[in-house]
C-alpha cells in the first residue's frame, strides 16, 4: 500500500508521533511519501516532496506556475476531474488554478491513501484525493478542531462528505468533531499519542526534599495556561510553601509571562529554561517532583505522558484530552481549568500526601503509560487504520 502523508514540515527530531508512525508503516511493508511545505531538519526516512513556493516577484511566480502546469500534463485526466469537483463546490477559476499549483506534487503520484496530518491542512485540498481516486484521511489533534473553527465557523462542513476516515487523538477531540457537524458519515478512529517508554524510564526511587521542584514542558502560548499556573504558585508562596518552578519551552508569550513572574513576586522561584532537546528535558524531569499542565486548550499532550513515565506526580487541567491522559485520583489529578485557587489547593494537597500514597500514584501512572501509550501499540493501530472497513 502507498500512503501519502501531508504535514506542514518534515518531522523534527522531537516529533516522535510522526516519525514512529512512518517507521511502523514502513516496517509493515507500506510505502510512505511525505508532502510538506519545508523540511528544515532534512528528514529523509521516507521520500519527501516539497509543495511549491510562492515567489515575491509576480513575473517569477507566473513563470513558476506555468512550469508546474506543464509538468502536470501527463496527469491531465486527474486535473480535469479535480477542476470539475471544484466547480461543483462553486470555487472560482482563479482559486482553482492557485490550488492546482499549490497542490501539484500530490497530483503526480498514485496513492492508496492521502492523509492530512492536521485538519487545517485540508482546507484548500478537499478534492485532491477524490480527483486521483484516492482515499482521504484527516487527523484532528487540538488547535485545528478546538480553536480554528471558532474563528472560521463551519469551516469543515464540506469535508465530512469527502473524507474516507477520520483520526482523532482523544475522546474529547472526537466530541469536538461531532460538534462541528460530523454525523458519522465515515469511520472515526481514536489513536492516542505515544512515547518511547524505553527512553522515558522512572528512577527506582524518587528523591524527596523540602524544596518541591515543579516543572512544565510546552510552548509559551496562551493555550498552555501558564499565567494561571503562575497565579496558583503565588498563592502557595504566600502560604510559605518552598518550591521551584521550571518552565521548559519557547514562544511568543515569553515576555508577558516573565512580566507576570515579576508582578507576582516569583522571580526567585521561577526558572525559564527555554527550548531543550529530549536529553536535557529528561534530566529536568529526573530532578523534579511534580508536573503541572494547566492548559486551557489541549489535544492530549505527550509531555504529560513523559512525566508520568518518569515517575512525576502529575496535575493537569480538564482541557480536551488531559482528563483522558490522566485518570483523576488514580494516576494523577485533574483540576477545572482557569481556577488558580483550585490548582494551588491541589498542589498543596499533593505535597502533603504520604510517601506511600505518592508512590502508589506514581506506580499506577507508570504502568498505565507503559501498557497503553507505547509506540509499538500506536504503530499497530495505524497499520489497522489503513485497512478497509476497519476501526479500532
TrEMBL record:
<dbReference type="Pfam" id="PF00534">
    <property type="entry name" value="Glycos_transf_1"/>
</dbReference>
<dbReference type="InterPro" id="IPR050194">
    <property type="entry name" value="Glycosyltransferase_grp1"/>
</dbReference>
<protein>
    <submittedName>
        <fullName>Colanic acid/amylovoran biosynthesis glycosyltransferase</fullName>
    </submittedName>
</protein>
<dbReference type="InterPro" id="IPR001296">
    <property type="entry name" value="Glyco_trans_1"/>
</dbReference>
<keyword id="KW-0808">Transferase</keyword>
<dbReference type="GO" id="GO:0016757">
    <property type="term" value="F:glycosyltransferase activity"/>
</dbReference>
<feature type="domain" description="Glycosyl transferase family 1">
    <location>
        <begin position="209"/>
        <end position="362"/>
    </location>
</feature>
